[in-house]
Amino acid sequence: MHNFLREIERRAVRMAEFSTRNRDDALEIVQETMLGLVKSYSNRPEGEWKPLFYRILNSRINDWHRRQKVRNRVMTIVHWAKGEGDEPADNPLEQAPASYHSNPDEVLQLSFKTETMITAIGQLPKRQQQAFILRAWEGLSVAETAVSMSCSQGSVKTHYSRAVHTLRVKLEDER
Amino acid sequence: MSSNRELNPDKIEALARRALQEDIENFDSSTLSRLNQARHFALNQKQRRSYWQWLPVAATGTCAALAIAIFLPITQPETSNSFAEVVGSSAAFVVMEDPELLEDLDMMLWLLDEEPHAS
Fold first, then answer.
1. pTM for the full model?
2. What structural domains does chain A harbor?
């Protein structure tokens, strides 16, 4: 289990960070995922761990989005009640940080192409992003990806092909 | 057109894999340290949980042993080990089974009484 977690943890953080756009929140989500896997599924065969891990991760990411939505609503009401929020900034694009990287040095270290690709993946719709990362990066099969995403295999194929198409268009535009 | 041909799904996958891999290899030391802590914390929880898993079993075993130790002497029927009582009860049982033996027993008892006198 130790080796499995060690091998998968960085990719999990990256995936969570794509979705939350915040490194600290991503780390918390990954820690919760590790705990969930260890508590509930450590007795399962090792071959099942990866899809189960990503299933928990996706569930935690969804929980995070739900909590954020509630928090944003509350904050909007508070701002509005204080009279500060004539035009509340509820546009998620305005609230999002300029870069997905918490450390500016990291950005400098990345080549232009890498940064372009990372940005393009980060801009994919959530489900397309999950399907693409799990299939292309994690190397999960369509069936395993479907388990991880709690959806049908047909949906996985659709999300994945749309993600590839979107990425192709974006990368072509960058050339 | 040629660039479109170049960027087939396999090529996009390969580019993405390389970019993502390069990205996670540049994680800062603080992130790596926190991941390390998170991993160890999760695995320690498992060990702690495995100790606690045995608690109900241990508690049940202890209770069962205590219950046996307390109630067994109370409920167990009193047994007597004296030879005479065992013989007496056996004789009574034998006589009840076959009343004719009673006459033989009387005969034996009479003979035992008579033998000292005879000597």
1. 0.62
2. 1-97 (no CATH), 104-175 (1.10.10.10)
